[in-house]
SPOR domain-containing protein (Niallia endozanthoxylica), 262 residues
Amino acid sequence: MGNLQPSSEGAVNVYKVIAGSFKSKENAANRVSFLQSKGIEAFVQPVTIMNERMYRVQAGAFTTKENADKRLEQVIHSGVADAFIVSENTPVGHTPIQEPIMGGIMLSSEQLDLFVKDINPQAMEIGSYYISFGNFYGIRGDIAFAQAILETDYFRFTGIVQPHQNNFSGLGSTGPDDPGAFFQTPSEGVLAHMQHLFAYATNSPLPSQYSLVDPRFHLVKRGSARAWVDLNGKWAVPGHNYGQTILNIYQRMLNRMSSGKK
């Protein structure tokens, strides 16, 4: 990320490199796989254009046009000749209290990992799982990562849940006698986290591409928490201000991005 380029008071321009928009989610996923095979980080972000659901492939977000141009050149050189840049005016310094659980992201996997390593240099790098699984389920993976930071104390695991459990969201953890769920890999642990958020955020059927690994999915009252603050008293008990604390961490992540810190 480069230096912050404010466009107006309390806002910053974010330049996103778009490597295609598709009506088919499968076609968008194929484009992501192609870019990743070329060493370019990318993910699918659902968007609505002219009242039509589209699947946009994003290959980076930057606070300077110069850095976005460099990524655009890399994407075009890989063979995606119709890639382009969009500029979005993003508020900083304030996170609305009713932020929905589902939606698009503002931060890349690299930014997630860099943020947590400011506090815990030994933290595992799992930001890519939060972005990829989050985008698959339509969950805001960057905010889910903030929730994982809260649950694990910046992946230091100073509470009941321990690192070998790969449980980054405290699923099933109720006390010393019940440390919660165990997952075989970090990827599976993040997948379970996303599936549990999906259960809370929507009544839609769980997409079948990935097996259900969340052991508590069917214990959730479907659609009962559309916003992060709706998790208060549900994900954590009593959980007063649980969602607000997640959003506060997320705000610090956005502030880091806006400061241009690398």
Notes: The helical segments are 25-37, 65-78, 109-119, 127-137, 141-152, 186-201, 242-259. Residues 1-91 form a domain with the Alpha-Beta Plaits fold (CATH 3.30.70.1070). Confidence is low (pLDDT under 50) at residues 1-9.
